[in-house]
Amino acid sequence: MASLITTKAIMSHHHVMSSTRITTLCSDKAIDNQQRKTKLQISHRFFSRRRISAAVINSVLQVPEKETVEDERRCHVAWTSVQQEKWEGELTVQGKIPTWLNGTYLRNGPGLWNIGDHDFRHLFDGYSTLVKLEFNDGRIFSGHRLLESDAYKAAKKHKKLCYREFSETPKPSRSNFKNPFSGVGEIVKLFSGESLTDNANTGVIRLGDGRVMCLTETQKGSILVDHDTLETIGKFKYDDGLCDHMIHSAHPIVTETEMWTLIPDLVKPGYRVVRMEAGSNKREVVGRVKCRSGSWGPGWVHSFAVTENYVLIPEMPLRYSVRNLLRAEPTPLYKFEWCPNDGAFVHVMSKLTGEIVASVEVPAYVTFHFINAYEEDENGEGKATVIIADCCEHNADTRILDMLRLHTLRSSHGDDVLPDARIGRFRIPLDGSKYGKLETAVEAEKHGRAMDMCSINPLHLGLKYRYVYACGAKRPCNFPNALSKVDILEKKVKIWHEDGIIPSEPFFVPRPGATHEDDGVVISIVSEENGGSYAILLDGSTFEEIARANFPYGLPYGLHGCWIPKH
Ligand SMILES: CC1=C(/C=C/C(C)=C/C=C/C(C)=C/C=C/C=C(C)/C=C/C=O)C(C)(C)CCC1
Ligand SMILES: [Fe+2]
Predict the structure, then answer these.
(1) Looking at the chain, which terminus has fewer C-beta neighbours within 10 angstroms, N or C?
(2) How far is CA 526 from CA 17, 300, 470, 502, in A?
(3) For binding Fe cation, which residues are annotated in this chain's numbering (predicted)?
């Protein structure tokens, strides 16, 4: 088990005023080479931000200086494992935090990509790492902590991968190598869900009753956490019979009163649309939609959208492949396959009755993130005639998935290799038409032809809206390196960028009492080329910097966040 090595670090006033607690990732027994290197990197990065000379650090740690410096230069901190299991402390704020901003921003993401001597392959494989920014009367109390999933605990204990992650499969044990039935055992373990990970590294949500839950696409990866201490509370126990289906959308839609999500069916390709009341652990099936394509698996459904009265169910040509799920070695599309000839569809279900009110064929598309959707009454007769649904669309190009391999992210320097993405706008007629449209909402060049990791003003969820906050790009780049505010009405874009940065999802928090959609702040955590990182606050309207606060160490890239208001 990891032991807690608590270091009191006295920081220079420039960065952190208070003393901070660090818990490093190291074992009780001999520290192996990888961990040793890791420890050195932590310390080097941690202290170098404080402008303490490398020689001083190295004399404390008794290591040659050269090694740490070379390690440091290897790759961007965005793609470097977090160097300690947890940390907490106060950040020094430059600028002024609005007095109304009181509450906690929590971000989840894969932050640890190596275990024992094994380096993970893909961005989505890493172990969940939570980062918090607690805003309190103009001050920021921060911290990070690894999530104690069964997958992470087992990996820590056995110093190897023990569960199936996004692209990684544990190696069969030696005793199983020659066993002709071990393959059958693996299939049983996969389809019972036993071998699947619970590494909830994708998102974090605040349920209407105040519970805070980390999520991934496996249902067993629904894990409750304490948003204050970042401690893992335990598994969220769904009180229904729907866990047999093993996977669900990583992005449920949550309001103060309910939660909606989609549960794909790998056996009879289709999706269950389910609803859970705030305060309950029981999901009710509102309806089921059958896939229209003749493919073996349902389309991958990372996220979906809702309007006031409907749930939109995407059926992408990027489909689950049972064959690829069973493979030990990854394919170029991992557990998925690309089947454009089988068609691309969007289905619309009534929230009230569970009936399918529209099911249209649309041009092929690849999206992970729906931005928002709403109903439009084109004839002014008091009845919705069309549904508009916007998403971060990758021009029906699946290359983005493989671009997120860690080796690719770490090794491309300066090349303009990020595939283009846009805001894709679906128009889904509600008059029984067979076809829907997919158009580009705003000229993609305006946001650097990159578009993903989006948020909106949550008060406009399912309603007509105007502003999208998302990661965009300043080309050339191999990954989105800017924040963008897109006005989808005026088709204008504001960009915020600094050299060498990798910012995570810009998260919009509305000002209480605001009357304008963009009246609020945008929070993002930025990883810097020089190994540091900082939290940034932008004005939701002008998109200009209001405040920033440096972390005393570098944080890797993260995925999605949520806001927990202070009571
Ligand atoms: C662990 C298994 C699976 C897990 C799937 C996971 C963890 C999927 C996560 C998907 C994410 C985080 C997608 C994010 C996309 C972001 C993009 C494109 C950003 C672009 C740039 O800004 C299954 C695959 C469900 C199968 C079993 C095992
Ligand atoms: Fe996501």
Answers:
(1) C
(2) 21, 29, 14, 6
(3) 251, 302, 369, 560
Residue 201 Cα to ligand 2 midpoint, Å, equals 10
| CA nearest neighbour of 523 among 110, 106, 96, 91 | 106
Q: Ligand 1 within 6 A of 46 CB?
A: no
The predicted-structure confidence for 103-123, as pLDDT tens digits, reads as follows 999 999 999 999 999 999 999
Q: Is the distance from CB of 91 to CB of 551 less than 8 angstroms?
A: yes
Q: What is the pLDDT of residues 478-490, one digit of tens each?
A: 999 999 999 999 9
210 secondary structure, DSSP code: S
Long-range CB pairs of 319-325 (<8 Å, 24+ gap) are: 319/293, 319/295, 320/264, 320/266, 321/296, 321/297, 322/266, 322/296, 322/297, 323/296, 325/190, 325/266
- Ligand 1 atom 25: the closest Cα is on which residue? 217
Q: Is 251 within any annotated ligand binding site?
A: yes
Closest protein CA for atom 15 of ligand 1: 368
365 C-alpha vs ligand 1 centroid, how far in Å?
17
Residue 64 CB contacts under 8 Å (≥ 6 apart), including other chains: 58
Residue 369 annotated as part of some ligand binding site: yes
Q: Which amino acid is at 448?
A: G
Answer yes or no: is the C-beta of 216 below 6 A from any ligand 1 atom: yes
CA–CA separation, 221 and 252 (whole Å): 13
The ligand 1 atom at the shortest distance from the C-alpha of residue 221 is: 1
State the residue for tokens 């020094």.
92
- Partners of 306 in the β-ladder: 311
Q: Report pLDDT for 5.
A: 28
Span from the CA of 21 to the centroid of ligand 2 (angstroms): 31
Q: Kindly report the protein residue whose alpha carbon is nearest to atom 28 of ligand 1.
A: 166
**Which of 183, 82, 191, 97 minimizes the C-alpha distance to 135?**
97
Q: Is the CB of 335 under 6 A from ligand 1?
A: yes
Which ligand 1 atom is at minimum distance from the Cα of 452?
Answer: 22
The CB of 453 under 6 Å from ligand 1? The reply is yes
In the reported structure, the alpha carbon of residue 437 is separated from the centroid of ligand 2 by a whole-number distance in angstroms of 24
Which contacts (CB < 8 Å, 24+ apart) does range 529-532 have?
Answer: 529/76, 529/77, 529/499, 529/500, 529/501, 530/500, 531/45, 531/48, 531/49, 531/72, 531/77, 532/45, 532/49, 532/77
Quote the percentage of the chain above a pLDDT of 70. 85
Q: What is the pTM of this model?
A: 0.89
**Residue 326, H or E segment:** helix 322-326
* Poorest-pLDDT segment among 53-62, 177-186, 301-310, 507-516: 53-62
> E strand or H helix at 357, and its extent?
strand 356-362
Query: Which atom of ligand 1 lies at the shortest distance from residue 110's CA?
Result: 12
Question: Has 560 been labeled as part of a binding site?
Answer: yes
- Is 434 a residue whose pLDDT tops 90? yes
Question: Distance between CA 265 and CA 476 in Å, rounded?
Answer: 40
What is the whole-number distance in angstroms between the Cα of residue 109 and the centre of ligand 2? 10
